[in-house]
Write the structure tokens for this entry.
Amino acid sequence: VSIGAEGIPSTFFDFWTKSLADASPIAEATAMGIQGGEGSDTITVGVAEADGPKGTITATATATADGTNVNLSLPLLETKVDFPSPALALGGVGTTAMAKSTGIHGDEVSMQEPGNGDSGDTIESHGEVTATATATAKATIASVALQGLPEPYGSPVNIIDLNAAVADAATMAVADASGIDGGGGNDTITNYGPLTATAGAYTEGLEISGSIIGQVEESSLAAGAALVRATNTAIASAFGIAGGEDNDTITNEGALVATAIGDADNIAVLAEIQGYVEKSLGVGATVMDTSTSAEAFATGIAGDLLPVDGEVLGAGNDDIANRGTIDVDASATATGISVEVTGGFAKDAALIQANLMRSDVKAVAEATGINGGGVSAIPDVPDTIEITNGATTDPYAIDVFADADATSTLVTVDLQGAVGGGSLLAAASLTQSNTTSETIASGIRGAAEDDIESSGKIKAYADADTNSTKVDVQLKGTEKGLVAGVVLSDTDTTAKATAIGIETEYGINEIDNTSTIESIAEANSKSLSVIVNVSGTLQGIAANLSLTESQTTADAIAKGIAAGEGDDIITNGDELIPSPMDKIRATATSTTTAVDVGVDTSITVNGGMALGVMLGRAGTTADATATGIDAGYAQHHCGSCRSAHQRFSQFRTRRNHRARHCDRYPWRRRHGHHNQFLGNQWFVQVACHNG
């Protein structure tokens, strides 16, 4: 808490070169059930019993950081002086919470260094393993600057007076949870029992900044500003089993659950008020720059390293087999509320005020059942990954769900009034808003040179919802003089959802599916924009200008099987024993709703002049794409591929039967690669893109 009279605080010059929120509380928590250390370790947890697995590991890490900063600058003993007298309230607060939990880790590990390599560990778990990481960060800051308080509390403003309030906040929460992490080396990991990894990252931010000038004396200049700069970030990552670097063998025969939750909430309020300006010049501004981001990444089994900024790095020739169940859930929610208020009253004076606002709200959720790995670090040596997903008695062997919700609300209000023979009232509002939600749900994801066999049911469900509301209000009125108002608005609202049952990136990949794949993608984007710009004068000039642009977009993509560039062989169904279970269902749904309302009015009485211009451009786009099998970009012979998005049924097709329908289209053969579909024994929807 800081209280100051007039003067320049020591942090004033730091504000222009760096964040004021650097020195802030940091909370870190680390929990480890079993840690192997260096060397080749053998770790066994529990034993298999007839009445269920025995042996339990529970690792729980909780980190909480809470910071509050209150700054007040006011004229305790204000005396009129004939030189500039600033009243500045500057404050910064930032909180960081980091939590990391691991049930079993094969190597030495710290939060700074994820793992140290060794020649390989053997980890076998029959018991119940639970890893939970929760990180919570909260930041509250209030900066208020007061000047020009009327007598007897103070004296009118000086000849030149500056008033500024700054709130600078940075809030971050990071949570990582892993059931089993092999670390470096050629590890062998086998899980038979229940395994649960849950990561939750939560942030809350509240920023208040106010500049208030009560009274401005004749022939004076008063300038006030209120500024907020805030970032609010929540990142959660959950892994059931992570192989780490090098060549790993991973087998799951238990019930594996990975859940990641990222939740970021931010509220920012600005106010710049000039109470009474007489025969003087009053200038005021509010400036707001906020960013709110929530990210959630959940993976059942990962062949390579844990993510760095959401990307899985590292390389290894991994062998991954799932004979149990994998349930993955990633949820991200980002909410941003921003409010700016300016106002004042003038008598035979000039009052000029402006609102500047930029707000970014983003929610990203990614859920993956099995992730084979990333790109090889050795040039020209791609990963070779074998992934097997077996059948179980459960409804789905792999069930992944990614959900992202982004909501933003922006409000700017400017109220001005004037009396007297001649006054100038001018107000400008410039706002930019980007609200984005993005989800990716993938049942099995390979990299390059992969061999994927799936006989268990796969469900991938991605849901992205975006809502944005923006309100700009300007109300100005004067007895005589000039009244002018400008509103400029740019709003972008986007929702994107992608769901893929089995996917690979590039190279020579072979995919063989003999069970049901269900891919569902839903994207919903809604926006509401309201502009009210009203100016009035009895005997004078009233002029308004309103320019708005908004784009509302929803994009849903659902694919059963998707292969990247290269020579791919894709088989769907059993050629010898056709079954109604050999189905691929891809469903994509997108909706957009946009409402733009504008009111621009200039009013004059008794022979005045009124001018008004309102220009708006609004666009809405909804795209939905559903594809059973996507062969990627290549030249290929695609057996059972008759045309893009053509639905057909073949009850029995021999594996060596390869239709040549795509050969008729030379434009499909421009990439110099070769893909093959070997048999489509039941029911599938196929698309050939550029081949």
